[in-house]
Design goal:
heterodimer, A: 314 residues, mainly alpha, B: mainly alpha, MetI-like fold, 12 helices, flat
């Protein structure tokens, strides 16, 4: 396990460095003066000069990169062009909104999708199984941003059950939760389908194993066999799926935040793109990507923890 | 059952120099291959998901290709008195904030989706297969390097990478295409790599090598035909993703620019007037859903019929 941990951490670190390199070199891949590109054609000469100085644009490129990566790794993501505030602080303020949304969206999808998959697998070809099958393919196929728009249309604009925009009054937990419901529904919907399908597939495989037959033969209650023994093994591929699909979850979170005007990281990046505020874009993208890499890392380590065979394969 | 079907010494089927067991006549092989093809065709024709998918896909291609002939109006023709109308006899799908006919805009928007899907998927497929075979067949260091590259690209959630890039370059259709291609190459490459890895040590490749075949010949004539099947199915399943990315980016104003019609720009304009009329976001979303559903159903059916193993682990 120790060796695997080390290798996996090394790989994650290499990917982080490569991501920083990509973010850094974007500025240079586009022809023209980097400071002007970063801040857009309307930026004042003073702002451009300040940016050039802060980014050490007069130094050779490799030194700029070392300074950039050094700063990024110590948590300094530069300063906002307009307010001169630290990007790290700004991103930090918004991170909570995004994490709450991602957590709730994934949470409801898991509490519904996993049992649904189990039930479908226990009774293959029953009506529940068929309905689950068609529904999961359909929810996977519908783009999440369309779910967001239509949910906004139906529940906020038409029925007026739930608020349409914002994150709710600060301090008022009930209001904040009400603002979370629609975006969380939108980003979680396709995951209900994904999870149900995945759990069903691996559950069917596990239910054919001999140790499940033994458990049944010993007279254990079916519920205990399914949730206590089979699910434990069947959940493993699902953990990988959650890790791999987390990038898609971040993408749909970006859309949900923009559509519901929720002040999370996605909205922050989007507004910064519109205002040509590249330091914020860079910082936000780095944090969002770092989050994704972290989740993939955790899911890989979890799998390796549960399943010793995986440790050999890297 | 004659005795000479089996080699008496080994108990294995007797094989002559051509590699075909001598009891099997060439006509028998043809016959059984034809029977298998008929069987698969029958499986496909009786699979309602597959047929629904096929019909939707044909509809998508036909409506996009024939848009100039079947669209009732010019997509940019203004009918100001009828602006923001719901479905009427004149405008079956309603009109937008400038009185442009939504149905015509949807039909023309399908052309953008088709263009991006056709170009994006085919270029990514070709590059992905090439890089994947290279990684699987090449030296160890090249494999590691390419894997790191794939992991880095995959570490960016698609929309987030698009935001970072468009922040610098400004929106354009070419940019959308580039992002679609870059983010989907790793998918194909990984599948191609895994398949190549499992093939590279098989006997027929070893035999090829012993005959002195060059790497290019082995890759092109012997690895490729074995790798390409699952990849084509994967490509069918990738079309919805590509179409969704295009629509999503255009929705955010980061893809196709107005006044060009795209499903994303229709949704964007509809989102801005969502409190006045629901029809634009409804009409703009339906073709998107039908297209993604169509390709997903088709891809799934093809996968179930031609490659039952693939479905298991996903």
């Amino acid at each position: 396990m120790g060796f695997y941990l080390l290798k996996r951490l090394g790989l994650a670190f290499a990917v982080i460095c490569a991501v920083v390199l990509v973010l850094f070199s974007l500025l240079y891949l586009i022809p023209g003066d980097p400071a002007t590109i970063a801040l857009g054609p309307r930026a004042s000469p003073e702002a451009i000069a300040r940016y050039a100085e802060r980014m050490h644009l007069d130094e050779p490129i490799w030194r700029q990169f070392l300074i950039f990566i050094g700063n990024a790794l110590t948590g300094d993501l530069g300063v906002d062009v307009f307010s001169e505030r630290s990007v790290t602080t700004i991103v930090g303020e918004r991170l909570g909104f995004t994490l709450a949304l991602v957590g709730l969206g994934m949470g409801w999808a898991m509490t519904l999708g996993i049992p649904l998959g189990c039930l479908a697998a226990v009774r293959p070809n029953s009506w529940l199984d068929r309905v689950t099958g068609v529904l999961s393919v359909s929810t996977i196929a519908v783009p999440s941003f369309l779910v967001s728009i239509w949910a906004l249309l139906i529940f906020a604009v038409h029925l007026r059950w739930l608020p349409a925009i914002g994150a709710g009054e600060p301090g008022d937990v009930v209001d904040q939760l009400r603002h979370l419901i629609l975006p969380a529904f939108a980003i979680g919907l396709s995951w209900v389908g994904y999870l149900a399908r995945m759990v069903r597939a691996s559950m069917l495989e596990v239910m054919g194993e001999t140790y499940i037959r033994s458990a049944r033969a010993f007279g254990l209650a079916p519920r205990r066999v399914v949730f206590g023994y089979a699910l434990r093994v069947a959940i493993l591929p699902t953990i990988t799926l959650i890790g791999m699909g987390f990038g898609g979850l971040i993408s749909s979170t970006v859309f949900a935040e923009i559509i519901f005007a929720r002040p999370g990281i996605g909205k922050l990046i989007f507004d910064a793109v519109m205002a040509r505020n590249f330091p914020i874009v860079q910082g936000g993208v780095l944090v969002a990507t770092g989050l994704y890499i972290l989740v993939v890392l955790i899911s890989d380590l979890l799998i390796a923890w549960f399943d010793p065979r995986v440790r050999e394969s890297l | 059952m004659s005795e000479n079907r089996f080699n008496t010494a080994t108990g294995l089927p007797a094989i002559d120099a051509s590699g075909v067991p001598d009891h099997v006549a060439e006509a028998d092989i043809r016959e059984s291959a034809a029977r298998e093809r008929r069987e698969k065709l029958r499986m496909f024709l009786t699979n309602w998901q597959g047929m629904t998918g096929l019909i939707l896909v044909i509809l998508f291609f036909a409506s996009a290709l024939l848009a100039p002939w079947i669209a009732p109006y010019d997509p940019n023709a203004l009918d100001i008195p009828a602006r923001l109308s719901g479905p009427t006899l004149d405008h079956i799908a309603g009109t937008d904030q400038l009185g442009r006919d939504t149905l015509s805009r949807i039909l023309y928007g399908g052309r953008v989706a088709l263009k991006i899907a056709a170009l994006g998927v085919s270029i990514a497929l070709v590059v992905g297969v090439f890089l994947g075979m290279l990684a699987g067949f090449g030296p160890r260091w090249l494999d590691s390097l390419l894997l790191l590259l794939f992991d880095t690209v995959r570490a960016f959630p698609t929309i987030v990478l698009a935001l970072a890039t468009v922040a610098l370059t400004g929106p354009s259709l070419g940019m959308v295409l580039a992002i679609v291609i870059i983010t989907s190459i790793p998918q194909y490459a990984r599948v191609a790599r895994t398949a190549t890895l499992s093939l590279r040590n098989t006997e027929f490749i070893l035999a090829e090598r012993a005959f002195g075949a060059g790497t290019a010949r082995m890759l092109w004539h012997h690895i490729m035909p074995n790798v390409i099947g699952p990849l084509l199915i994967l490509a069918a399943m990738e079309v919805p993703v590509v179409v969704t990315v295009e629509a999503g980016l255009s929705f955010l104003g980061l893809g196709v620019l107005p006044p060009t019609a795209s499903w994303g720009t229709i949704l964007n304009e509809g989102y801005l007037v969502i409190r006045d009329t629901p029809w634009m976001v409804i009409a703009g979303g339906i073709p998107l859903i039908l297209t993604t559903l169509g390709f997903t159903f088709l891809g799934e059916a093809l996968r179930d019929i031609f490659d039952p193993r693939m479905g298991k682990g996903r």
